Protein 1
Amino acid sequence: MFRRAPAAAFLVAGVLAGASALAQTSPAFGPLPASTAPADDMPLADYFGLLLQIAPAAESGARTYVAAVQLRCRHTMGTAELRRAMAEGEGNPTLMGLIRAAHLKDTVTRDRLVAQLPCPLGSTR
């Protein structure tokens, strides 16, 4: 039983060494270049298209949110701002509510959320 322990330890050490070698990048290629493109480089229509492929309710809710911000707050949202609204924390509560309402086809909740939409800082009503 004890004679197998060194063999098992040797095997584990070999696997770990091989795995760490595979995880390293080649110095011949250097580090990955940093992206110089701004976060808002994707057109909003393309972002909506991607959302539609992933989750149609997310696309519908996001379109409603962007349109509501434009109409109620006179603020044109860009892709980066919409992405932040989706991704920061648990997501913008109004946007998440609109996505849920789109999924449930709940027009009453959608209309209520649009009517109560708080404008982003720097926007006017």
Protein 2
Amino acid sequence: MRTRHGTGAWLQAAKPLEAHMARTGKNTVVEEFERRRARMLRSFGACMLLIAFSLCVTQIADSFPGLFGIGRKGWMAFAAAQFAAGVVFALMGFRQYRCPVCHQIPRAHDKYYLGVAVDPEKCPNCGVRLR
């Protein structure tokens, strides 16, 4: 990440925060990251449930178009709203899952996967221990 202060300015700015967090508790960084990780996993769980529910509602709309006096278009609108809510939950979980020190999303870069590291041992950006 390049800023007007140079390439490593974000890392230098994160060090005082890391020192403060180390003074306030033995494993404060680890505990905060675990809290954020749990929140991310809950958000993704809610996302999966909402998307699955929207698919079930779509099937109900196709099988029983007049169920409860609601037409097919009403059921499809409800399914679309559920799907959109699921996407919002997924994005919220993704945006909240950050390193407590450098505030970057821990990404996994290996031979097969270029996404988010779900349970990293250390932050790939600043190197602080997360587990």
Protein 3
Amino acid sequence: MGDWSFLGNILEEVNEHSTVIGRVWLTVLFIFRILILGTAAEFVWGDEQSDYVCNTQQPGCENVCYDEAFPISHIRLWVLQIIFVSTPSLVYVGHAVHYVHMEEKRKEREEAELEGTLLRTYICHIIFKTLFEVGFVVGQYFLYGFRILPLYQCSRWPCPNTVDCFVSRPTEKTVFIIFMLAVACVSLFLNFVEISHLGLKKIRFVFRKPPPQTQGGQGDEGQNKLVFYKTAFFVLFVSIYLKANKKKKGHFQQDSYRTEEVII
């Protein structure tokens, strides 16, 4: 089915910059989607078109009926679903690596926390994953539903009339469709839980946030120092003035006493 190593390496980078719920989502993606799709599901759909039989010998009728019954193969649809759902993670890990690189330039060996721009990018990538997930589930429902019927009746041209076509392994394929649908629902649930977790974490952080000690704190400290210096200078000036005034008053009283002695 192809080499998944490139996508695996990318998602390993995502794992380093995700929350606990995000790591659970990656586990679900690897084990219950990529692994199952690459091992069991491909064998179930391997004989999909070759064993699709219609009760007619009209040339081309069987092909057009198969195209009407299955506009796109389930395997290819699920591969596209995995790629589209993983694309927001690719965008996020690119931004996360760039963010960590910039933080390392400013602060060496300091782990970048999930906040600010990085947090907004992380939430956006979860939202896009959810939208792609819902889109593919709805698309699968409108294409061929969530159940494979053993009998499909077709009346497209060039079929001479309504013909009966028979699908191979309908029950087994239905089981796999329901399983992949359940995995998609689990992924959606994890996305909603992760967004709720980040929202509650942000709310708790806002309510428990200590008073700012950055530039505003430094400004208040400088203002307090300025007030202290002004007060000290004022007290020093007043004390010097009072001492000088007291000394001047003593000299004035002494001169008055001498003047009175001369008059007497």
